[in-house]
Amino acid sequence: MSALVNYVRVSTSQQGRSGLGIEAQRQTLARFAETEGFEAVSEYVEVETGKGADALDRRPQLAAALAEARKLKCPVAVAKLDRLSRDVHFISGLMAHRVPFLVAELGRDVDPFMIHIYAALAEKERALISQRTKAALKAAKARGVRLGNPQLAKARTFATARIKADAEKFAANVLPVIREAQKGGAASLRAIAKVLNDRGVRTARGGKWAAPQVRDILLRAS
């Protein structure tokens, strides 16, 4: 059986997506090796984005897979072409390492030229999708459609209101102590803060008082 070096990659934002997870890629590569008569001699797993012209510098596992494949004179296999990269220039650069790549979803007989073609088509499709998305968002905005996640906006509004209510409630509880300190002769913000600290009163976050926190309470009361 011919040797094969497997390379699996996920980005932190893609680990849970169907078809792109580590186990899904492993299963695809295992079926490919069994069908095509290969034996996977090693596997390199990378958690890293595929973006950027310097992507190989930030992907040590891919560099290690290339080195081992060059030593064993065997191909590097990936489940999907975009596990190498979504950038045709980057894939072209990989070809310069003179290590053959096999893409399980494309089959064993796809030559390097066709891999370039598939990469170019994928890159072009991404560009078109991006253009269409931007155009659709621009048109929706022109029609007065509110963009964004309404549930997220609602949650943020609720959280902001809750924080404000808690702050006002805390200020109302502390204000009588501050007034008492003022009546006792604490004329400055720093002096009031010292009285609060001496009495063991904590700020809303559980810390010690300083002049700015006292000022905030007084501003709320004004």
Structure overview:
With 222 residues, this protein is an alpha/beta fold. Helix content is 55%, strand content 11%. The protein contains seven helices and four strands. The protein has a four-stranded parallel β-sheet, with helices on both faces. Strand 3, helix 3 and strand 4 form a beta-alpha-beta unit. Helix 3 packs antiparallel against helix 4, helix 5 packs across helix 7 and helix 6 packs across helix 7. The mean pLDDT is 80.
Mean pLDDT value: 80
Q: Rounded to an integer, what's the Rg over CA atoms?
A: 30 Å
Helix content: 40-55%
Instruction: Tell me about the largest β-sheet.
Output: 4 strands, parallel
Sheet/helix structural class: alpha/beta
List keywords for this structure.
222 residues, 7 helices, four-stranded parallel beta sheet, alpha/beta
Spell out the blueprint of helices and strands:
Elements: E1 2-10, H1 22-36, E2 38-47, H2 60-72, E3 76-78, H3 88-95, E4 101-103, H4 112-142, H5 150-183, H6 189-198, H7 211-221
Parallel strand pairs: 1-2, 1-3, 3-4
Structure summarized in a few sentences:
This protein is α/β, with parallel strands linked by helices.
